[in-house]
Amino acid sequence: MDAMRLRRTTSDGRGPAVQVHFPQPVSQVFDFLADPATRPRWQSSLRAVELLTPGPPGVGTRWRDVTWPGLRPELEITAWETGRVWAEHGSWRGIEVDLRLRFTDLTSTGAHGTLVAPTTTVDAAGWRRPVEWGMATVGPLVARDDLRRARRILGR
After folding, report:
1. C-beta of residue 99 within 8 angstroms of C-beta of residue 85
2. Which of 15, 9, 6 lies closest to 125, judged by CA?
3. Residue 119 class from Cβ within 10 Å (0-12 exposed, 13-18 middle, 19+ buried)?
4. Which one, of 55, 58, 113, 108, lies nearest residue 86 by Cα?
5. Mean of the per-residue pLDDT values of the chain
């Protein structure tokens, strides 16, 4: 990363840390959140997802988000550890965004359900920097609200 770039992430103390509890088992939560095809059901900004690669989702699966504002970023699954970690990388016109979801199975602690902790990283250079700052500040809160929506859907 060159000197003209700035990275913001929820894990470095510059953005709010977020965790969402799901009463469902980790396998059910992971399967729902890790599949790009289910995203329009729970991600508020999406109208649709256009899959760019065939087959079941996994590392390397690519798709294009069709958003309400009209943006169409391309995304790719970059990490897939069933029941533990899922990550994506997205890009759109010089803005790079990484989302990582960490899943914790709470049954090992005597509790029930799953804890999901999203971490977002936004990277943009030059005139896009204000967009980066806004996304880095608001992104974790939007992720929290979207995960809460997913929790409600899974609870039906």
Report:
1. no
2. 6
3. buried
4. 58
5. 84
The answer to whether 62 and 80 are in contact (CB under 8 A) is no
Please name the residue that has the structure tokens 């929290």.
144
Helix 129-154 with 26-34: angle, nearest 10 deg: 130
Number of helices (H), then strands (E), belonging to the chain: the values are 3, 8
The span from the CA of 78 to the CA of 6, in Å, is 22
- Determine the residue type at 51: L
**Looking at this protein, which amino acid is placed at residue 123?**
D
What angle is formed at CA 14 by the lines to CA 85 and CA 96, rounded to 5 degrees? 60
Give per-residue pLDDT as tens, 122-132: 777 776 666 66
